[in-house]
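Progress note, project year one: complex with adenosine-5'-triphosphate.
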Amino acid sequence: MSEEWNDQEWQEEKQRVDDVVHEIKKKITSLQSKAKDLKEDVIDIRRDFWEDVTVNIEEMDDKIETEASIKQQAEFLSERERSHGQVSEKLDILRRLEDKPYFGRIDFKEENGSEELPIYIGLASVLDEDEDNFLVYDWRAPISSMYYDYPPGPASYDTVQGNISGEITLKRQYMIQFGELKGMFDTGLTIGDHLLQSVLGNQASTKMKSIVSTIQREQNQIIRNERAKVLIVQGVAGSGKTSAALQRVAYLLYRYRETLTSEQIVLFSPNPLFNSYVATVLPELGEDNMQQMTFYQYLHRQLDDSFQLETPFEQMEYYLNKQGNDYEARVESMHYKASLDYKALIDHYLEHLSTRGIVFRNITFRGQVIIPKQMIEKYFYQTEGRLPIADRLEKVSNWILLQLKRLEKVEREKDWVLEESELLEKADYVDVHHMLQEENQFSEDTFDDYDREEELLRKKVVAWRLRPLRKKVKQLAFVDPLRTFRQLFSSDQWITDGSLILPEQWKEICYTTEEHLKQKYLTWEDAPAFIYFEKNLLGFDAQRTIQHLFIDEAQDYTPFQFVLMKQMFPVSSMTLLGDINQAIYAHALRDETLLSEKWQERHERIVLTRSYRSTAPIVEFTKSFMPNGDLIEPFEREGDTPIVMEVEQHDMLDQKIVEQIELYEQNGHETIALIGKTLEECQTVYDRLKHRVTVELMTQEAHIFNKGIVVIPAYLAKGIEFDAVIILDASDHNFQDELERNLFYTACTRAMHDLALFSIGKPTHFLQDIPKQQYRHYKVHQISQK
Ligand SMILES: Nc1ncnc2c1ncn2[C@@H]1O[C@H](COP(=O)(O)OP(=O)(O)OP(=O)(O)O)[C@@H](O)[C@H]1O
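Model obtained:
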């Protein structure tokens, strides 16, 4: 830090803050009165709505005039409501700026320019009274990018007119609170470390914070990237991937504000808890939240309610518990079904189906088969074979609808129709009377009213009964995708391509998959495959309105899932953020994750190596047991080295854990996580501790993250952070293989300030080769007799 400013400068800066705050207050007052007027307008229009429209429906002309008048009044109302909404949003932002109008400044001298201009940077732009000059620039404005990208010296930024270069002669950061300047410092670095130090030194919050004032240069590359159709971010634990992703959403919404709305952006998050954890960041930045969901929620929506869908966490529990006779085959199945080899197999099967094999359903009406499935099959396979299956099914659908039309005429004459007419609603009878009256008005024909009424009633009854059937036919419900999919596993006659790859235990896999499918149970690995199959068989209803897709924890998605996503969101740009060291799902052991370059054709890649979340001693500790840990750089923040507490017996464990919790509480930690490997483990510890400390058990159903002490399985703690973390059982038998290493790393890296690991007997061998000074190792032989 170089404090090159003098007292006069300090006074000037102080005065400027006061002036800007004063201007903001004036704007707030004026907007408040505008908001009040608009609100009154809205109330008045709503109250007098029907008085202000001319309602007359006697004559056709009057009817049209009435409609126009209602429409005009409704448009007027919604325009006022919209304006009121916009003014309220502006007011919200100004109220935030009133507290902290800006956080940074650069003085920039354009090349060939005569003077240097001070650029003050804040959460949003503020203009002076005449609306001529910027008192504050929005952090997302093109010129503000230099604040994040350059130290003092040569700098440039892009505008729509081209690149503008020049020199930054000053770079300053401000600490402003409650509208008052508390401190400032000039910096030679991109963003001064001391400011970051103070932000990161705070206690963890149950809500993620926005990082606008301390965005780091490499994070800015993610936030402002506009070129890449697929942007891959590989970032170590705590490097700010999620933070950067959310600021990127805010940036895109600002940059494309004329064309992009928050509904056109989707974020897939790792668990429901995470949804609530990040929910406040965008509103804090003055933007609406994007659509946010887990991939499980998304897949669930694609299936009808009769399916039972395994959650990824249930799959994970199964994998980690290592039990069951068919365990080996199921794990093999998880690997295979994650891969593109499996996709190739399904594609081959779909090709086969274009010549034979689709399972159809009978069309039945009132319990009778009216079009047998064999007939539908015959019709289908007579349609042009080179057309896509979905197009051919469309033809079949039209053909069936035609048959239904014929049937309708025949059915009208049958006895059941009159009987069922008694079930019609009163409104239907009134309708029929109206129709008759209208006919009488316009027709000269004489006919028996009673007969005509019966005829119309018959027509109505049959149309009414056929309506759901027609709807189903349009939805192609005459195809049975599940049975068709099941056939894939019941025979291999259709496999005619020798280059297709099958797993060793394919027969066992086929057997269990079929059993599951029979019960309409979809395992987590089967769900994307079935949905992919069904969509490609019946035709895709792709989500073309979605412009940007963000996938957090991208390493946990399988290549197969990604292919499905690409099909479902065909026009979307994608930002994939993840960390290979935190790959905790079975497929990641053998297959490429989404972050690997191997199978991503065109993409841009950004690597983040600096970890901001944890203190330096925690980062040093966690990086030392990861194979590629030397690439991880800690951010210099002091703290204690982690504790490894080895207890001899089980009954000592609880006491030691409780003591550790108390110690952390005394240190002021407000969020403390007791992290276990599986839910089963967490449940046991929770049952033992719940009478001794106030503690909450987090399961996959948890949607809200509160302050206090939680017991949570590692896979649910993904993406989240805590003041202190206690690893419940870091024993060697509990953390063995490579996937468990990643799980262990994920769990330990949730800690911001303090980390303690407990083990019964020898701690995990992952700690064997790491330098002893990186942690404090205690062995407890018996509970001290104090
Ligand atoms: N530039 C920054 N300024 C201030 N805080 C930052 C910055 N970058 C990251 N952080 C903080 O570091 C912590 C970790 O950030 P974040 O959760 O975004 O990382 P991540 O890479 O998604 O982590 P993980 O993969 O471990 O879940 C958060 O508390 C975040 O606020």
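The first strand starts at residue 104 and ends at 110.
The pocket of adenosine-5'-triphosphate is lined by residues 196, 199-200, 209, 211, 214-216, 219, 235, 237-243, 579, 582, 612-613, 719, 721, 749 (CB under 6 Å).
No further modelling is planned for this target in the current period.
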